[in-house]
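Problem 3 from the worked examples.
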Amino acid sequence: MATATEKNIATQPRTGGNKNDARRLRREGMIPAVLYGAGLAPLTIAVDPKQMKRILGSESGHNSIFDLVAGGDSGKAMIVDWQADPVKGVLLHVDLKRIAMDQLLTVSVPISLKGEAPGVKIQGGILEQMLREVEIECLPADIPAHIEGDVSKLGFGETIRVSDLPRTDKIKYITDGNQAVAHVTAVKEVVVATPVEGAEVAATTAEPEVIKKGKQEAEGEAAGGEKTEKAEKSEKKK
């Protein structure tokens, strides 16, 4: 079972639900939380953010199951959702769910790749992992901290899929078995455009040519106009 390092989590009852109440709680070193599930009415409570963060940072993370005392009752619970400050990273709120140890749960479990792929070691490819988590169904006591994907026989151009992950009678995969987990592929080359020598010079010299041409045309028009004026004067003299 994915047991949390924090064994017993104490809570405090919480009244009010506006932003001012939440700020007051945080100043007191607690954060707002909601506890629900197991067919019981939801409870608004306050919890210690340090305990919650240690649970989230443990090997089993949010899948950790711990003992919780709330509203005069005690039982198993787990973190199902949380909100953190995007800048400071401090926890602001958590959602907790009561856990019945005899009922199936659907959880997402991280995939850990093990082994060295021949396609990388011998054939010079790179190992790319496309799927980081897999969704499974199992009893709370059977939640694994992670699921291992063996890549020790993976050659160049080959793929391991969800259907290739280890199977036991205790867990059922919900994620599509055809979904790719990892493969060995070629090293991606980044093509950088090389400037052509003299291109800048050509662009620089091209503009004066246009200007020169325009100047010539203008001079031609002026000359033509001068010739026309002289011809008119000559006609008048005649």
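Problem 4, a separate protein:
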Amino acid sequence: MSDGGDERARAPEATGPGPETETKSAVVRRSKSVDRSPDTRETAEFGERVSRATAAIRDRERRLDPEKLVEYTTDRRDLDPKVRVRWGITMSVGVAVLTVVLTGLISAAGGPAVLGVLVLAMLFGLGAGLVVLRYRVWIYQVREDSLYLERGVLVNRRTHVPYVRIQHLDTSRGPLERWLGLSTLVVYTAGSRGADISIPGLEPAEARDLQQRVKRLAIEAEGDDAL
């Protein structure tokens, strides 16, 4: 009888944890898992926001609205016709000086003086033709990403000046330009000691308007400290 009683007394000690203990452990594990899920979501959302902000800074998403951008861009434009007078006067002075030099050389060589008149007429006609062709091929345009210029008679040049390279814009008017009512827009770019490009043959109001357009686009491309 005593042996049987001892075995019944030791029986509960030999068995493992009961169902009640296992159920409490599972509840605790599920509770911890639920508690961690909001933190995980917040961390993921914060990481996405940081990634988007970094990408925005890297790509410099400072562009104007498409509708606003149209107001600053322009179509292909010609120069003011009065610029032909300016170029013609400059050409005539050059032709006169060259004719005097050639006439002197012809006279020194014993040639007839009439050759000097023929040289003057030939050079003047050639220069006048170059002035007309130069005016016809001169084009400028304010585009979304760059200032575009097309010019040159013998050698046609097409230039794209990205707004991110533009450092300074200026307008200039010499005595001849003031007399003709013209102005020139001068564009300075990064890495150049002088003016990289210039757009002549503009009316003063047009030159100021073009200056403001290009300046605004350069600021949007580079930031508020661009100009």
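Solution to problem 4. The chain is about 60% helix and 15% strand. Strands lie at 139-142, 146-151, 157-162, 166-172, 183-189, 197-202.
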